[in-house]
Amino acid sequence: LKVFDDEGKNVTPHPLFQPDPNTAVPRQEKLSFKVFYLLWPGPSSTSRINLSLLNESSRGVVCCPGVSAVQEQGEAAPTEAELEQSVDVFLSETDTLWMLDLPAALVSTEAEEAGRVLERNKIYAEICNAKIGSEYFEEKMVQTISGAAKTKEVQCETITVAEKGMMVTSWDLDNSWSASEPAKAEGPRAPAGRSSKSPTAEEHGQAVAVPSARASSIILAESAVPARSHEEKECHAEAILTSANLQQDLVVMERILMENIFQPKLAVYRQIPVLIEPAVTSDTDVEEAKEEEDDEEKKDEEKEEEPSDPNQSPAEGAGPSLEQLWSYRCDLTSGHSVSSMAWNKVNPDLLAVGYREFVSQDQKKGLACCWSLKNPMWPERIFRCEHGVTAVDFSLASPNLLAVGMANGCVAIYDVRSRNDAALLDSSASLNKHKGPVWQLRWVEQDRGATRGDKKERLMCISGDGRMTQWFIQQRLDCSDVMKIKRTESGKKKLPGERERKNEAPIPQQAAGMCFDFHPEDTDIFLAGTEEGHIHCCSCSGKEQILGTYRGHKGPVYKVAWNPCSTDTFLSCSADWSILLWHRDSHTPLLTFTSVTAFVHDIKWAPKSAFTFAAVNERRVEIWDLSVSIFQPVLSCAASPEGNLSSILFARNAECLLLGDSCGHVGVWQLHNLAAPSPDQV
């Protein structure tokens, strides 16, 4: 099909596909011709165009608007006149479909908007020239269209960041305010005149915090400024000191200072490497250090030349020792005696300490403090009690609850999460409260359910009124008696006359309870030490509460403790200067330990050894290792030169020992060269 214009030129469009001349030419097939006629309505008759299709395989028909193609099927050939007749064919374009429209970034100078574009370019150039040299402007490329994600690697110089600051005083603000508003010349004259004077605290606060208020207060009379300044100064200072943000910032600062001061000691406690800060010294200091090293080397050589004992080995010479790391103490606890200590069951860094004070046999107010390893110089919580604190212990089910026993028989429970020092619950309103001092209390999990394993935590107490009680936490704090400790008759034979005379005097039937300890495996069994020197093995469930009595001490029993590894043995200490080792099935002591003539106030088994325990008497702390010796302690030293030792406690997650004394100090001591526990022997 070919298209000609009015002048007879061939204007047929070329095909878009240009065959490659280097490719092989396909074999020419036989061509055949078929004649079609294009029919369309003319002015007078039907016109035809004879078109020749070269390819025999073609089956299509060329169609134009208003034109129909009819294949010749046995019709007569057109006449010569019909063939010579000229026919006009008009071709028109369809509507353009825009698939992508990118507006041009260039505008012709002859366009209508050329002037407006030139004006915008001029304004943009002026803005860019004004930003040159400004420290707050940086030219960067901006891509507004988010393209496809690509991996690109870019290398550039290091971007440096600089911080700049300046200090502005109140008179600078006044002068700037006056200069910025020259129209208000009459009003700002007062602050401008005061610009050479020293600014007050009120001016500082208003100029920085509320500039508008400062401007409005300028017109006040000079006589009214001092009185208002004094009042606002007090309110502003009080608001700052009571601010929660300031309190939190002070706590963070305190933590940082404590970490810097106690970092080497805390690292030893936690058994991690100690960070040693490199010392920056001058040339003279280096020379002096070298001379000291030379002197030390000479001394070491002289010691090596001295004859040594061949029978003594280095291992035998290095025995157990104690090294003090730090001490929990402050001015608030000075003059009080440490009565008891207890670790938190969940947070091993939180320690509760009870304090009491006895001066001329008059009981004064006590303290219950919570110390943290993060601040050994001041307690985290301070609970002030009306009477001396004799016992403390943390709950396991609710680690935030701290139970406190007092010298007047009162029991109180505090919430250590609260900063309020008021007791959450106390036994002051209970009708069954103790009449004597609560010498010991402890949270104990006991199996009280119908199904095995249904355990409930209960608070158990023993008091000087001879009662062992359990406390219930409900809307108020109330208790019930577990048992009443009765006095036991002596086994010695007495004459009839003596018995009759003794019966004439009134004898109290109840014996004062001093201490107790529950069996580590069976919480229904517990030991109770009395003031008369007896130890009762008791049961919480059963008709007969006292299962047996161990008689061996001749003074009040201060502490009893089951062995955590060998649960059939237990220790007891007394005012008769002795420590006794008992077996549950024997009513006579297995071993008696006595090293000094002093009251033994407290004993504790090592948490990971069946042979090692610690004890404190008036002046010394003793470490006993039964696998080494049953006659002498492996370590005995005076750990409190200022006062008498009163309490002892092993650290839960470190090889350390805590010692409380009568001066209100709780020393933390590191144990060195102590024999490792042997699990094979019991």
| Named CATH architecture of the domain at 339-448 and 456-486 and 508-596 | 7 Propeller
Low-pLDDT runs of 5+ residues are: 28-72, 183-228, 305-317, 491-505
Strand line-up of the largest beta sheet: 4-33-32-31
Q: Biggest sheet: strands, sense, closure?
A: 4 strands, antiparallel
Helix content: 10-25%
| Highest-level CATH class of the domain at 339-448 and 456-486 and 508-596 | Mainly Beta
Number of helices: 11
Extended strand count: 33
Biased composition (Acidic residues): 284-308
InterPro entries: Dynein_IC, WD40/YVTN_repeat-like_dom_sf, WD40_repeat_dom_sf, WD40_rpt
GO molecular function: dynein heavy chain binding; dynein light chain binding
Keywords: Cell projection, Cilium, Cytoplasm, Cytoskeleton, Flagellum, Repeat, WD repeat
Q: How would you portray this structure in words?
A:
This protein is of the alpha+beta class and 682 residues long. 20% of the residues lie in helices and 28% in strands. It has a domain at 339-448 and 456-486 and 508-596: Methylamine Dehydrogenase, Chain H (7 Propeller). It has eleven helices and 33 strands. A hairpin with a 6-residue loop joins strand 5 (337-343) and strand 6 (350-356). The longest helix has 26 residues, at 244-269. The radius of gyration is 51 Å and the shape is elongated.
